[in-house]
């Protein structure tokens, strides 16, 4: 005698996984953009350094659409240097 123990809603599972993947990729890309800005400026955000080459001036938002959905990227703005990410 077999009993159904667990019922899985496939659509809800896929939606949840897509949301998790999208959020994870978005956080990773934003962290990479921040790390690249740190490298270009020669100092981390809010860090005082004599070796600083440029300064942060906020960020602007860019939307990126991928298979999992739309992501918001925060692209750093810099004073004294050009931010160009590969």
From TrEMBL:
GO terms for molecular function: DNA binding; transposase activity. GO terms for biological process: DNA transposition. Pfam families: Transposase_mut. It comes from the Bacteria. InterPro entries: Transposase_mutator. Keywords: DNA recombination, DNA-binding, Transposable element, Transposition. Required for the transposition of the insertion element. Belongs to the transposase mutator family. This is Mutator family transposase. It comes from Bifidobacterium hapali.
């Amino acid at each position: 005698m077999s009993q159904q123990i667990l019922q899985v809603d496939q659509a809800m599972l896929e939606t949840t996984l897509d949301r998790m993947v999208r959020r994870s990729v978005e956080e990773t890309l934003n962290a990479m953009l921040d790390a690249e800005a740190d490298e270009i400026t020669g100092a981390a955000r809010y860090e005082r350094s004599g070796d600083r080459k440029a300064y942060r001036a906020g960020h602007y938002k860019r939307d990126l659409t991928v298979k999992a959905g739309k992501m918001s990227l925060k692209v750093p703005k810099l004073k004294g240097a050009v931010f160009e990410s590969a």
